[in-house]
Amino acid sequence: MSVLVVTGTGTGVGKTVVTAAVAALARAGGRRVAVLKPAQTGVGPSGSGDTDTVARLAPGVTTEELVRYPDPLAPATAAARCGAAPVRAEGVADAVWGLARAHDLVLVEGAGGLLVRLNAEGQTLADVAVLLSAPVLVVAGPGLGTLNATALTAEALRTRGLSPAGVVVGSWPDRCDLAMRCNLTDLPAMGAGPLAGAVPEGSGALAAPAFADVSRRFLAPCLGGTWTGAVTPERGPARPV
Question: Does 15 qualify as catalytic in the annotation?
């Protein structure tokens, strides 16, 4: 059994799609895979959450959501606003260990960034990773400012004794500017590990078979893909076959 925690340098950087991509490749490789979302915010009781996206993109993967809060806020604030019980790091770890009994890989997708509060006591996804002794995959945006955000996330990991599993650009646009192209070269120097992929923008709208193909071509071998990290001056990530 192995556990991988997936965090972002912020909100909206593509964590869910990257989580689904890693899950899809592991599943294609014959592994039993589970994806756990400790706290889903901004979605009502009958709405479609991140685990629903994962289930659509990576059929056959077990998905589980622990708590859901309707307001699109940090879990601690969202829980307080609706009067619901907050999620605790220990409860998340227990859920992961439960899933691990029947799965080869458990992916834990956080909400927002690494240090977003889960509860009023100030527990975060980093505390979950510490309890699990799990490596952390960092999902970053492509544009200006991503180097600083990635470096800060990496520093937070190091101060807690956590191992970075690499950094993936979660939504690479079809048209990129100079800063984006330079960021692909510079991101590995930010301390979050090697550049482990650059998933094309809009991949989350694909059907499952096409998504699996994109995942394979744009994630590095350390995540089950074939992307070598090659970039082109004009368009960024080279498109392997």
Answer: no
**Which residue among the candidates 37, 68, 181, 216 is catalytic per the annotation?**
37
Q: At what angle do helices 178-186 and 146-159 cross, to 10 degrees?
A: 20
Dump pLDDT digits (tens) for 117-168.
999 999 999 999 999 999 999 999 999 999 999 999 999 999 999 999 999 9
d(C-alpha 206, C-alpha 222), whole Å: 23
d(CA 237, CA 218) in angstroms, rounded, equals 8
What residues are paired with 232 via a beta bridge? 236
| pLDDT recorded at residue 102 | 97
E strands present in the chain:
2-8, 33-41, 62-69, 105-113, 136-140, 164-172, 195-200, 231-232, 236-237
CA distance 231 to 193: 18
CB 6 within 8 A of CB 162: no
pLDDT of residue 1: 58
Neighbours of 22 (CB within 10 A): 29
